[in-house]
Amino acid sequence: MDRQQEFVLRTLEERDIRFVRLWFTDVLGFLKSVAVAPAELEGAFAEGIGFDGSAIEGFARVYESDMVAKPDPATFQVLPWETGDGSHYSARMFCDISMPDGSPCWSDPRHVLRRTLAKASEAGFTCYVHPEIEFYLLRQLTSDGTSPEPADRGGYFDQASHNAAPHFRRHAIETLEAMGISVEFSHHEASPGQQEIDLRYADALTMADNVMTFRYVVKEVAITQGVRASFMPKPFSQHAGSGMHTHFSLFEGDRNAFYDSEDPYELSQTGKAFVAGLLKHAREISAVTNQWVNSYKRLIVGGEAPTTVCWGHANRSALVRVPMYSPGKASSRRVELRSPDSSCNPYLAYAVILAAGLKGVQEGYELPEPTEDNVWSLTEAERRAAGYDALPYNLAEALAVMESSELVAETLGEAVFDYFLRNKRSEWDDYRRQVTPFELSTYLPML
Which among 114, 267, 327, 331 is most buried, taking Cβ atoms within 10 Å? Predict the structure, then answer.
């Protein structure tokens, strides 16, 4: 038994923890959990916990359904929910999914990201990630098609106490910090009820685990405050969508491979090639970074979200930005991808984003000139004339581009690639069948 396992078992006894939740994620990014008693955990470390993989979205067919969840002791954290007497009673660990013979499950999103990180490691790189996660606080969740009501009327950076959950962000941050997830910033976003919490950078696998934990914690804390949290990309027609602007950097040991003090923008050739890879493959990876029908209601002109494949420095209308908050600070040089939304599967999203950037580095892609245009103000004809490609307009277009992408197919692996396409095509077909209130109010009276 290794030291991390010994630490977990000792902590369970010392903290009187009564349940351990073993977490993993399905292909669509939904959190799955099985609870075990502390007495069973030593056996789980040794042999894992068996389960029916065919019951998990995208994992297996019925005739190959036996799978094993093996807890990763490095992810152990006590859940900061308390019993009536104030004592902790549960903890969580993320799991790696394997087949009965011990081989990795190729449909496990965590394994998909591990494979891509292994390729980065072979090239000498460690990938660090820093996400800015937006979401809405709502008075209640609705499933009958009616518009939800924001929990407050605040605006960008508002400090005022609002009429619901005024201390939500403080409680959420305290909970995240108690679980070892460092928060860098938090503030009210531009739209009523919209919040943003930025996580301090971590390696990509740890951050994907953190994002899954973040979404769980935020929803749980919201309930204690009498409201509900939603990571739906665009719940309101009249308000901005919720994105997850994500900063990436590659390190070679302790050296930031994106930094070059001699470059006007302090961006190295490696950094430039990484950005060029993101731009070249942006359309191919969109179905993964923006995986829902609703995701493309956010990615429209006028929605304060990227719509065009281009890059810039201070330009927030660009798909990729190179922030200059800390000039001369080597460790701070990073690139920001602005298209992902906060409801994506972070394991798959980080995998395809990293794969696209690495492809640019390995193939020596040339970075085009940065755009200084406010792309949102340009007409479609003006954008075409300037040579800007458009991001996919809807999920169907994104899937069509993804289907022909060798990079995405190789990164996700055959099982995840095929399942993802089938599941999302079904979602698109279901959406196309719907007759919307817009159609009824517009066409029924006049046709």
Answer: 267
More confidently predicted of 88 and 218: 218
**Structure token digits, residue 18:** 């009564």
Prediction pTM value: 0.93
- Nearest Cα residue to 349 out of 272, 427, 278: 278
Distance between CA atoms of residues 442 and 381, nearest Å: 28
Nearest to 391 by CA among 314, 275, 295: 295
Structure tokens at 146: 């009616």
Distance between CA 364 and CA 371 in Å, rounded? 21
Instruction: Output the CA–CA distances (angstroms, integers) from residue 205 to 74, 112, 272, 354, 358, in the order listed.
Output: 11, 10, 23, 12, 16
CA 127 to chain centre: 15
Structure tokens at 84: 């009536």
Q: How confident is the model at residue 325 (pLDDT cuts 50, 70, 90)?
A: low
Is 381 exposed, middle or buried, given 0-12, 13-18 or 19+ CB atoms closer than 10 A? Answer: exposed
Mean pLDDT value of segment 280-302 = 94
